[in-house]
Amino acid sequence: MTSLSVTPAMQDALAWLDDQSATMVAMVERWAHQPSGSWYDDGLAAMGAIVRDAFAELGGTYEAVEAAPGQTVTDAGEAVAIRYGPIHRFTQRTHAPRRVLLTGHLDTVYPEHSPFTRCRWLDDTTLNGPGVADMKGGLIVMLHALKAFEHTPLAQGVGWEVLVSSDEEIGSIGSGPALDAGAGRAHIGLTYEPALADGTLAGARKGSGNFTLVVDGRSAHAGREFEAGRNAVWQLARAIDALYALNGQRPGVTVNPAVIHGGSANNVVPARALCRFNIRVRDADEQAWAEAELARLVDRLNGEDGFRATLHGGFYRPPKVLSPANRALFDLVGRCGETLGVPIAVRDTGGCCEGNNLAAAGLPNVDTLGVRGGHIHSHDEFVLVDSFAERAKLSFLILCAFAQGEMDAALAATPDTAPAATKPEARR
Ligand SMILES: [Zn+2]
After folding, report:
1. Could you read off the pLDDT of 361-370 as tens digits, one per residue?
2. Is the Cβ–Cβ distance between 381 and 82 less than 8 Å?
3. What pTM value is reported for the model?
4. How far is the centre of ligand 1, averaged over its atoms, from the C-alpha of 135 (Å)?
5. Distance, CA 177 to ligand 1 centroid (Å)?
């Protein structure tokens, strides 16, 4: 691995980012104190305004993109429409020969009335708080990397698009089409989920599907006409057993029945029951296999006298399998780390994020370029504050290396990613 050549302008920008450390830490405290749970509309609006003002300093254009409508199944088994918050889109030089998509989210997993609303210092370098790592800290890293980049002459050859969604923690259903479209306009993707505390980045990611299986039977009095009933709870229990039996049949597939609802009273044969479950898969073949098994199960249930089964949901995040271009991008990130004296390790994970969406749309991407931190999705969430400048410098160098043409050969060699100068404006 060879280090990158660092120009005097880049050297100045790196020094500037070091100077911004305290500013970034103060900023994450302010941002974390604005609650923005995925379902908390007012919080998302307030956080959106904060992000919009901060990114306006980059001098690009801004647009709020409406999220696609979604659907959920209530605990009573009824499908109802749901709306998601907007996607905040910032762009600069969209017709430049090299284009990068940067993505992040402003929602957190902490709901409107969560008691976890304040930051707390655990020691000199560890800040505990809601969203400090996942991913308000990451957005701040992205913002400062772009600020530094815009001050170098290299920026003139690169167009960038930033997409900040409001629904990542609930699956990016509403922002999925915007992410897909953005991926189609860019050559590489950078996403700002937190790295592990030791700096390790996520490599390949499993795909994830969320489903709800609703089984309808027939209600009857449990004493007077038990035989006339069709017990939906029993039929669902059998179906859950069949679902669970899919575990271990393919190496990367796991099936997790997670929530059940059904029935009303002990003297009533239950007419309806449902199970919510999650399936993880390693690649497209495993996903196709799991989908075929689900279809078979639903067919079998619908063939049973007096029962009806309805399956809702799907693989909202396809598996992220590393393409040759994506591996080349990881190599480049490794070289940027080496240039900074920061070793970059990569490890595959069963978790998923927007990086899955970008990969499924054919965009090579690295999705854990945010801060170093841990215990995310819990009240122990923390960020290591010395990682703000470190990670902003890493992203800055990735942008510079991309501008210098370091990725062109890898992109040109990959069929789903046309060479920088000739890629059409939108693939889909
Ligand atoms: Zn996140």
Report:
1. 999 999 999 9
2. no
3. 0.92
4. 5
5. 18
